[in-house]
Amino acid sequence: MTQDFVQELGQELGEELGMEDAAAAMVASQPLLQVNELTKHFPLGKGLFGRSAGVVRAVDGVSFEVRAGETLGIVGESGCGKSTTARLLVDLIRPDSGQIILDGQQVGPEMSVREMRRRMQMVFQDSYASLNPRLTMEDAIAFGPMVNGAPRQQALALAHDLLFKVGLEPRRFAGRYPHELSGGQRQRVNIARALAFSPKIVILDEAVSALDKSVEAQVLNLLEDLKGELGLTYIFISHDLNVVRHMSDRVMVMYLGQVVEIGPVESLYGNAAHPYTRALLAAMPSMDPDRRTMEAPLAGDPPNPINPPSGCRFHTRCRFAAPVCSAQQPPPQILRDAGHLTACHAHVPGSGHPGLESAA
Amino acid sequence: MSTPLVDINNLHVRFHGQRTVHAVNGVNLTLAPGETLGVLGESGSGKSVTLKTLLRLLPENRTQIAGDVRVSGVDVMALSGKALANHRGGVVSMIFQDPMLALDPVYTIGEQISEGVMRHEGASSREAYARALEMLTRVRIPSPERRLKAYPHEMSGGMRQRAMIALALACKPKLLLADEPTTALDATVQIQILLLLRELQRELGMGMIFVTHDIGVAVEVSDRVAVMYAGQVVETGSVRDILRSPQHPYTRGLLAANLHGAQKGQRLQAIPGAPPPLDTAPVTCSFAPRCPVKAAGCDAGPPPNVTLAPGREVRCIHALGEAQGSAAN
Prior knowledge:
The complex is a heterodimer. Chain A is of the alpha/beta class. Chain A has 14 helices and twelve strands. The longest helix of chain A has 18 residues. In chain B, the strands form two sheets. An eight-stranded mixed beta sheet of chain B has the order 6-7-8-3-9-10-12-11, with helices on both faces. A four-stranded antiparallel beta sheet of chain B has the order 2-1-4-5, covered by helices on one side. Classes of the chains: A alpha/beta, B alpha/beta.
């Protein structure tokens, strides 16, 4: 609905103001990336007598938007669907349902996957597995542009530029193979390769998690520099809450395939609304030897995303759980300001939940 | 002064193979009974190798070990045969990062724990199973009777880690070696395991050496911390001292890179470069090429190991002035 309206508005403006102004007006009014009700269920193999053994609800109705120039952090534990969401975004896995709208055009009907991938690139956690062991660094970076029609000489020149940009001296590194580089250097090459199409959005899926702390800081600085220099937008996925806090403008918290809270970074870290977000923050190791953690905020492991709990998926581990929590799925609720949303019955007036303070 | 539980003196470990790696280059560590030492370092700093030396787990034909390693006064390097088997699991026990690899997939948890108890204490099968049940209860595995008969693959990651801890502690060792046991776990599970280890360590009165690359984790469990770099201990001290007044430039860099309290939009104070390759034994300060406060003397020879206070040592030329300053005061 809104999307159509914005597009119509854009077209009208286009007639009045000329195309460039209209494009500018649209950029200002719409998010760069909009994701609506994205869903992916993985069926498990057929059981005995052809009965389905169940489905993994990896991503279940995830909606969010990313504004141009911002960094959206995505956090959550293993099995929460953060990596599946990233793979769905770049069509490495085809979603069961839901819309992905990039630059105002829906991927699929209005924008080809190939075009979408030119604008949205991804960097993975395993820097070694994501490089072809038989390609030198310059060939690895030039491969994409060449497949898309760039002449070899031009693609190689671009590769050298990009190597320089990510802090690797082209003369030393262009001819090397992946096994001749350290983990941090390989991840720099992966970043350079992602930038070869001049994308608008780069999805960083645990891109620094495998690196040692001192090297991680170097790569984070590089990412910040590139963002400023090239006007990039990041989707930054990590389990490290310190890193996400440092990198992100807004943060989205996922639990068992659903978004439980999304908001501006300081609002979310300083004033978390969802009991799961609070638990996640409380589970961070204390950096003060005189104030060590005395009690674990949650007991047990995250439940299996196969047949997840009914209603609010967190109710089995939540100490504020009320009867309504297992009966109904909580709707996204706006808190304080419009940018901070959470899906928790305790924040919905009249939901039947007594609220977080009284339940404690 | 009583005998320290662990006393490592000038330990050198070198691996031979296609290329030589000088993994540990002169490590000195001591641990008092009932104390927890956190060993902090990045990959390749020699922290796991040091731990494995205490159990003699390194492949003998490709490893050259020099130095003195004692646990409760017993020379670990001289152990062999039955004495070594008694040492492993009976006196010193170890838990690993990946419980799926550490546990045997074809035996139930109950069988694995009771086997060790029967071997070390000569207990009957019935007694050993009773101990296994007691241990599973102690590490707070829900419905422990049922889990005795479970295979590792039937348990979740956090539960497997608890089972491995139960296995390691079943024979009441004096020393527990923990090699990044929470690194692969989710945040909310990691803190549960850390609290459990802290509690068990206190209850059983055992010493613990906890290897990690995460400063936050080290703070949660340790009394003292040793920071390792390129096969050497560059700084030791109480957790408080290391956190509040780190002396070695590497420790400072590591703390800054941890991002705790880093301001958004501010550049991180990253340590430039990468650790040295360790093909040759270090003759000067290994950190000098990356050091922001490198001085002329840093390339002249090995850095002095400066003792600032009892149990507070820094391997850095700049600490000399610090030590003289505090001595003058």
